[in-house]
Amino acid sequence: MVNINQIMKQAQAMQKKMNDMQEQFSQQDFTGTAGGGLISITINGKGEMRKISIDPTLVEKDDVEVLEDLIMAAFNDAKKKADESTEGAMSDAMGGMGLPPGFKLPF
Fold it and tell me: With CB atoms 3.0 to 4.6 Å apart as the test, which of 1, 34, 83, 103 could cross-link to 73 if both were Cys?
């Protein structure tokens, strides 16, 4: 027979662990680059942009569209790294629970 108290304790422990991990990731920075390092963007684990760095050699009147594309590519690179790091840590934390592949928490 399933012990509901044990399940509730496990759920509370898992929730605390997830909250702690989310706090840890929110304080971690991830930097993405584009254009061979000419553009770099740093975001935190929540996906908030912290810093953008543009090499001064890129700033020409006619290069605005290229500059915008490079900024977008650098941001997406940093966001991807943050998402992969978060997913990997969550997977490690939930590894012993026997959840089906693709099952994501929190709901």
Answer: 34
